[in-house]
Amino acid sequence: MTTAPASRTRQRLRVRTARATGEDLLSRLPHPDHALAWVRDGSGLVGWGEAARFEASGPTRFADADRWWRDFTSTLDVQDDVGQPGSGPVAFVSMAFADEPGHSVLVVPEVVLGTRDGRSWTTTIGQPSPADIAPVRRPSTVRYADGRLSVTDYRGAVAAAVARMRDGDLDKVVLAHDLLAVADVPIDHRFVLEGLARRYPDCWVYAVDGLLGATPELLLRRTGELVDSRVLAGTTWPHDGMSDEELEAALMSSPKNLEEHDYAIRSLADTLKPFCTTMSVEGPSVLRLPNVSHLSSDVIGTLSGSPSLLRLGEALHPTAAVGGTPRADAIRLIEELEGLDRGRYAGPVGWIDGNGDGELGIALRCAQVEGSTARLYAGCGIVAESDPDSEVCEAHAKMRPMRDALEGR
Ligand SMILES: C=C(O[C@H]1C=CC=C(C(=O)O)[C@@H]1O)C(=O)O
After folding, report:
1. Which DSSP symbol is given to 27?
2. What is this enzyme's EC (predicted)?
3. How, if at all, do strands 226-236 and 366-370 pair?
């Protein structure tokens, strides 16, 4: 089902992009909530205000969003003095993981600030009023409670999935659970985003419609005819007094983790290949983050036609980094064993511009924030050799970025 776009989307809007002086993007967000962001190591986009919005759900959500964005951008009066990916009209995108339930959203801000390759710009869409920057607020306390799937039930779900895989029902499934965090004051999105950006410069820090996070995984970036992706699957985390080097050597030689990674790479590369004239895969190598290390591969391709990023995202989602193998069987098992509404966790998140270019990450290491409450999500790839206790520890390690950011650590 698709909901109607906001009434202002039918009006002819002025879009003006001009060069600007480079400044720290996240520190320019004026409001504590409704932040829009896609920033990695100081580069990217932030936005605020809402010039237009589109919501969709169901199996046609990507196609509906793509159509709406084409229609919307075709009506605009655009003057773009920068002419880079991300200048001109931009929508921040966050798609639901599942066909049902869940809603997907595209938000077109009134103001966008961008920085790329050392160049910065400002885009206005419509006629935004000037906004003063409100002081950033930090919570004094954050308390935690079980989410819809407690840690104990998560462990049970993983054990049940392992049994199914040992019976040969499927090869891999990614199971997640949630955790509720409650702060003593309404959560300031900027406080969380700044904490994530400071500690995770190798990740894409994002915010769309209250979904905040720092993902290390890029589903797909489209820049003209070039596409690239960073596929992650197979994880280790600091434990047992082992050094980072020992842990990473063990990860690179672990048949269980290499198998998990192989399913994820194959799901991405096999689906992307028909859209490309050339495609190469490099990896795996180890991506080291402060909380976990992942097996990581890069896929680079040249498109044969001009499919938009959203239509490519539709084909690729969900990869076996968040779904499983075979995909349809894994989705059914996720519904059966998780019993969790993932919302937009593990769905594509990022931005698109008026040329169909943009970046879509996978919404990992995130929380859905509403007022003083945040629902954190983390999941793990499960194969027949998985150990439920280890997967519980891994999910815990994956929640650390959001916990630390909420608590200001
Ligand atoms: C599903 C998540 O991570 C995925 C991405 C990287 C490594 C993963 C793993 O090793 O299980 C997961 O496939 C998550 O962080 O919630």
Report:
1. G
2. 5.4.4.2
3. unpaired
- Classify residue 197: in a domain, yes or no: yes
CATH number at residue 25: 3.60.120.10
- Report the catalytic residues: 172, 217
Domain range for 99: 7-407
Domain count of the chain?
Answer: 1
So what's the pLDDT on residue 340? 92
Q: Is the pLDDT of residue 5 over 90?
A: no
Classified as helix, coil or strand, 364 is coil
Residue 288 lies in a domain: yes
* Sign of the alpha-carbon torsion through 208, 214, 218, 219: negative
pLDDT in the model for residue 8: 46
Q: Is 251 in the pocket of ligand 1 (CB under 6 A)?
A: no
**What is this model's ipTM?**
0.99
Nearest CA to ligand 1 atom 4: 321
pTM of structure: 0.96
Query: Any residues with CB less than 8 A from the CB of 287 and at least 6 apart, and which?
Result: 202, 216, 232, 293, 294, 295, 296
What confidence tier does 10 reach under pLDDT thresholds 50, 70, 90?
A: low
